[in-house]
Design a protein that fits this description.
The protein has about 120 residues and is mostly helical. The protein has six helices and no strands. About 55% of the residues lie in helices and about 0% in strands. Helix 2 packs parallel to helix 4 and helix 4 crosses helix 5.
Length: about 120
């Protein structure tokens, strides 16, 4: 019986290597909600910092925003819509992150002009 179980397991594990590569699931609304939570309370970053990386975000703009939040928070600075805008203006990446279309939607309580 053990031989039959081990044969079955090896057949199953062998089948895994033949599977096509799959894209991980994505949820842009969840990404936006997480970014909004970090902005609303920078302590929320501490809850996800040990496992969440910028490259885990599907939207490249969300990835850059999370990376900027991480940079500011780990320097002991506040990550807010205003400090992020300043951060991206200083490195010339404000247009690159698509702030005009993506970022204001992440935190509906924040209304600032990105121009």
């Amino acid at each position: 019986m053990e031989a039959q179980s081990s044969t079955h397991l090896s057949a199953v594990s062998g089948a895994d290597s033949a599977l096509p590569e799959r894209m991980p699931p994505s949820n842009l609304e969840a990404e936006q909600a997480l970014l909004a939570a970090v902005l609303a309370n920078n302590h929320a970053y501490e809850k996800v910092a040990s496992f969440l990386q910028p490259d885990h975000f599907t939207d490249p703009a969300h990835s850059r925003l999370f990376e900027a939040c991480r940079t500011l928070i780990e320097r002991g600075q506040l990550a807010t819509a205003i400090t992020l805008k300043n951060h991206f203006e200083q490195d010339g990446a404000l247009a690159e992150v698509g702030a005009r279309s993506t970022w204001p939607n992440c935190n509906p309580r924040t209304s600032i002009s990105w121009t």
